[in-house]
Amino acid sequence: MHMASIERNLFGGYGIVGGHVPLGAGAALAFQYRGEDRVSLTFFGDGAANQGAFFEALALAQLWRLPAVFVCENNLYAMGTSIERSSFLTDLSARADGVGMRRWSFDAYDVRAVHDEVGKAVAHARTGAGPVLVEARCYRYRGHSASDPGKYRALDEIEDYKRTKDCLMRAEGQLREAGCTDAELKELHESVEAEVADAVAFADASPEPDAAVLYDFTFAGAA
Amino acid sequence: MAVLQLREAIRRAMVEEMHRDPAVFLMGEEVAEYDGAYKVSQGMLKTFGPRRVVDTPIAENGFFGLGVGAAMAGLRPIVEVMTWNFSLVAYDQVINNAAKIVQMTGGQYRVPIVFRGPNGAAENLGSQHSQALESIYAHFPGLKVVSTATPRDAYGLLKSAIRDDDPVVFMESELFYSFKGEVEDEEFTLPIGVADLKRDGGDVLVVTWNKAVHTALGVAEALGREGIGVAVLDLRTIRPLDEAALYAHAARIGRVVVVQEGFPFAGVGAEIAARVQEACFDSLDAPVLRVTNRDVNMPYAGNLEKLAMPSAERIEAAIRAVLSR
After folding, report:
1. By CA distance, what is A59's nearest residue in B?
2. Is A16 near chain B, with CB under 8 Å?
3. pLDDT of residue A1
4. Which residues of B touch A98 (CB under 8 A)?
5. B288-304: pLDDT as tens digits
6. What is the mean pLDDT of residues B176-194?
7. Does residue A83 belong to the interface with chain B, where contact is any CB pair within 8 Å?
8. Of A15, A21, A217, which is closest to B102 when you measure between CB atoms?
């Protein structure tokens, strides 16, 4: 929430699960209306796939063949509720079938697969043939939030994913196969860690907002 | 000066704004091929085509949200809701998205959208189709709420709403779509947030809006023949509230009755009464009274519906009550 970048076309993060899916379809409606060669991507989790707003957005996007890609990041747990306890169908891409939308699932532990599969979906949406729903099957190691100890799943399960499927571990293997040296990988790790550390330091060093801005941005124009 | 029905005045505003700005389009249930559930958008499909006059399925949560997303991406949607009652399934899109996006994005994104349609009871529409919902939209920062039922005001305010860079909830009246009034031939706009003194008088100020304005004016006329001077202040915009006009007239006249459709508990009338006593306490000669819907879900039976509404008789009784102090 509260994170957006208009210069990067990042429409923001939203705190009502599934409530933002129509916004992504709406952006695609604007692209189509103006005849622009643009596609919207909307990200959400398995929990959002049970919300009415999600279904309505899919129905409208398909009806109007909007240039939209809907990416369901199915990490198997909506907060503490497992996918088996929240959905009869556990392949969530099947949600598209009721509206006749193109859909498929893929293993998102492979970063190249993510790139290729989402790329295919975007290419399809860009042709004007209609939107796509993809399910990216993934996993989360930590709790849902800072206050979630994640006790609803066995430690073994988490360790198993880390040991056998971790996407960074796989990516490292793929980079080695492509000829990356240990020194290059070390440098990459260090540069990413430094970038994150810089961002944390920037956040810690930034002052609290001035009290004078309390009412700012209630309206874009004159109140 | 043309005499237009309310629906014609609303249509004229939309048509003019769509000719003026290619980013403006109309979307909603039955707005295109059916020509509008209440014929507000009659002929607009023929004029603008299906790209700009868009029929939607019955999916308010979906198409309200698509409208918000399209507005963020630079369009200026007019989203028609067949009645505001149906907006309750899309309430999340208005409150959690439209009203908050400017603030949540630090002013990067704006949501220039108008949600419009009829509000309040018509006749024998039953409990789920008879609600006046100003209060639940006016409650939230980030929304503007216009509620009006004269052709001239609706025309001028809707044009301002369409040009506004923020989300506007625009409430009309089914019963008054055929109501006729004069509208200047030349184009004009009326500012959002400015009340209109529809009638002046020195004894009691009635504060109201939308179709209750017409009821209040009838009562004022009748009491005027008895020598009781009743002023009628039509707020036209609930939010932002024209506090300057409200307090000036309340302080000048000293006796205030608020007439609202909609339920009394935490209604707009309660807010007005609270603010008037805070701002004008020393000038008031009587407590501020409210005339509202009865605190009951709308009955289907016509006689009971009349009992539940703010009738001319109840308005007159409230005026006489504040005068007796």
Report:
1. B62
2. yes
3. 81
4. none
5. 999 999 999 999 999 99
6. 98
7. no
8. A217
How far is the alpha carbon of A98 from chain B, nearest alpha carbon, in Å? Answer: 15
B→A contacts (Cβ < 8 Å), by residue, are 25, 51, 56-57, 59, 61-75, 89, 92-93, 96-97, 101-112, 141-142, 164-166, 193, 240
* pTM of the predicted protein model: 0.96
Q: Which residue of A has its CA nearest to B53?
A: A33
pLDDT > 70: what percent of chain B? Answer: 100
- Over residues A45-66, the pLDDT tens digits come to 999 999 999 999 999 999 999 9
Confidence (pLDDT) at A145: 85
DSSP per-residue string spanning chain A: ----BGGGTB----SSTTTTHHHHHHHHHHHHHTT-S--EEEEEEGGGGGSHHHHHHHHHHHHTT-SEEEEEEE-SEETTEEHHHH-S-S-GGGGGGGGT-EEEEEETTSHHHHHHHHHHHHHHHHTTS--EEEEEE---SS-SSTT---TTS-HHHHHHHHHHT-HHHHHHHHHHHTT--HHHHHHHHHHHHHHHHHHHHHHHHSPPPPGGGTTTTS-SS--
Q: What is the pLDDT of residues B151-164, one digit of tens each?
A: 999 999 999 999 99
